[in-house]
Specification:
This protein is mainly alpha-helical. It has a domain at 6-141: Four Helix Bundle (Hemerythrin (Met), subunit A) (Up-down Bundle), CATH 1.20.120. It has helices at residues 6-34, 37-65, 72-102, 108-137, 145-157, 166-174, 180-186. α1 runs antiparallel to α2 (37-65) and α3 (72-102) packs antiparallel against α4 (108-137). The longest helix is centred in the middle third of the chain and has 31 residues, at 72-102. The termini are far apart.
């Protein structure tokens, strides 16, 4: 699949439908307040596109579930994510079909009801996204075990960043200091030095 396994494909297909459905609800809210038909039309087409994309995201997610090595905790988190995703898709699929057949004939009451349902669907969508983020950032779901073990090993080894000039300072500190005898031999007689260009004089 063009270098994508199911988990990576699912991750790639997630963002756009979620963004489209979010924008669709925003368009509908703005249309309700401004009464602008152009915003309602934008919300209509954006919601349909988001619902179609949501089908692809859910289908890829169902396949990804069978291709991820996981523990019992990850399995429970995936089940919750799956349930939320199916509810989200169900809400917006119904809304999209509703609007396809009723968009031009909706009265104000029906349109208000559709808006309320879409706002509720948006809430479930955000919960779905949060649960998906938990799977990745708290459980490392989708990351192969060998890759995860290697990353843990490298983190245990540690990684340090050096600021500008830090390497030079470290090098200077590690140099062997001159002995007292060498310092005394290098110092001029009289125990003090003169700036360059100072005329000769008796101490």
């Amino acid at each position: 699949m063009l270098g994508y396994d199911w988990p990576r494909l699912h991750a790639a297909l997630n963002d756009l439908p979620a963004a489209l459905l979010l924008i669709a609800v925003v368009f509908d809210i703005l249309s309700a307040f401004t009464k602008r038909a152009a915003l309602r039309t934008a919300g209509y087409w954006t919601m349909i596109a988001g619902a179609v994309g949501g089908i692809l995201a859910v289908l890829s997610g169902l396949e990804a579930e069978d291709h991820i090595a996981h523990s019992e905790a990850v399995h429970e988190a995936m089940e919750t994510h799956e349930t939320l995703a199916l509810v989200t898709l169900g809400v917006f699929a119904v809304l999209a079909l509703w609007r396809i057949f009723r968009e031009s004939r909706m009265g104000s009451g029906e349109r208000t009801l559709a808006l309320v349902v879409s706002i509720g669907g948006l809430g479930v969508l955000l919960a779905t996204a949060a649960q998906g983020g938990k799977l990745v950032f708290e459980h490392a779901a989708g990351i192969p075990t060998a890759v995860l073990q290697n990353e843990m090993h490298e983190r245990q080894e540690g990684h340090h960043h050096h600021g500008e000039g830090e390497d030079a300072d470290h090098h200077d500190e590690s140099a062997t200091p001159a002995s007292d005898a060498d310092s005394a031999a290098a110092a001029p007689a009289g125990g003090h030095t003169h700036p360059p260009g100072t005329p000769p004089h008796k101490d």
